[in-house]
Design a protein that fits this description.
alpha+beta; Helix Hairpins; Heat Shock Protein 90; 3 domains; two-stranded antiparallel sheet; elongated; binds adenosine-5'-triphosphate; binds magnesium ion
Length: 313
């Protein structure tokens, strides 16, 4: 908290100074033009002053443009620093809570007299914690890799879509202990896509995970996959959960962005998942879009992919 306040105050000083300089330059320019205007109206000879005025005005405009750019880039810096700060808090939490749970399970396992059922329960809990840690570390590594490498990193395979969706759904079902009808799959069983399997798996796991996480239990999530045209495949992950305001539909794909909302804050997350989804879908030559009628009205994440990804040279 103290660190955040320190960063904010250290960056807000140059921003204030930049804004004051912009205002002063503008006041000077207006004053200068006003004085010259008065000279003209009093018919004083100004032939020599006109060039000076033009040059001065141009320099002022240049100074103002540079200062505005400076202020904008600083403001962007502040936003990025704040996001990274929130990210570090979330990362710490995401790492610490499964680790604390693992420690507790291991301590309990060490006790004498535990029956087989209790041991099995602890084993399942530990596997879930490891799965959470694994998914989280995958996202962090993938986001980091994607921020350096933008394209040309795909490795192509023929992927049977319904198998892949089934596999991703299985992982999420275990993670959230879903009842069978909380997550329905309707994917054309003959649909084969030539794409990067590992990348598409991360995309699907993130979208299905969000659909369940941002729903109220029992969830009503549906994954639909079909051929859209000769060249395209459409994948939709639909939920009836907390929904997304219209103004945030694009922002949710920004790195570290989480909607400012009590319902979102109650759920764990770092705001990395959809950034990873967006960047991977771009690499696969597709598009991803968030659709929602607003808060409380569910969300559909629509992914459009080429049936055969073409690797650009
Ligand atoms: N299906 C959804 N319904 C409602 N809001 C959603 C949904 N999916 C994403 N969001 C909003 O978009 C934000 C960004 O999602 P993203 O998956 O990137 O991060 P996260 O779920 O918060 O964390 P994580 O990095 O663990 O996935 C979420 O915090 C949430 O506010
Ligand atoms: Mg997520």
């Amino acid at each position: 908290m103290a660190r955040r306040r320190k960063i904010r105050s250290s960056i807000s000083i140059p921003i204030t100074l930049g804004s004051i300089t912009v205002l002063l330059s503008m006041a000077l320019l207006v004053g200068w033009s006003f004085l010259l205007g008065q000279k003209i109206s009093r018919s004083v000879d100004i032939a020599g002053d006109v060039w000076l005025l033009v040059l001065g005005a141009l320099s002022f405009v240049l100074i103002i443009v540079v200062l505005v750019l400076f202020v904008v880039s600083l403001a962007r810096g502040i936003i990025e620093v704040r996001k990274q700060d929130t990210f570090i808090d979330s990362v710490t939490h995401e790492l610490k809570s499964p680790l604390a749970s693992l420690q507790l399970c291991l301590e309990t396992l060490g006790r004498e007299g535990l029956d087989t059922d209790a041991r099995e329960q602890l084993r399942v809990m530990m596997l879930e914690d490891v799965d959470r840690l694994d998914a989280f570390i995958d996202d962090v590594l993938e986001a980091n890799r994607l921020s350096y490498a933008r394209s040309g990193m795909v490795s192509l395979n023929d992927v049977a879509l319904s198998d892949l969706v089934g596999e991703c759904a299985r992982v999420v079902r275990i993670r959230y202990k879903l009842e069978p009808d909380e997550l329905r799959i309707e994917v054309d069983p003959h649909l084969v896509v030539t794409t990067d399997r590992a990348a598409l798996e991360i995309v699907l796991k993130n979208l299905i995970d969000n659909a369940v996480k941002y729903s109220v239990r029992p969830a009503q999530v549906e994954v639909v996959g079909r051929r859209d045209s000769d060249r395209k495949v459409l994948l939709e992950v639909k939920d009836h959960g907390i929904g997304i305001d219209r103004k945030n539909l694009k922002r949710v794909f920004h790195r570290f962005y989480r909607v400012e909302d009590q319902e979102v804050r109650q759920r764990r997350g770092t705001g990395l998942g959809l950034y990873v989804v967006w960047a991977l879908v771009e690499q696969l030559g597709g598009k991803v879009q968030a659709i929602s009628e607003g808060r409380g009205r569910g969300t559909t994440m629509r992914v459009e992919l080429p049936i055969a990804h073409v690797v650009s040279a």
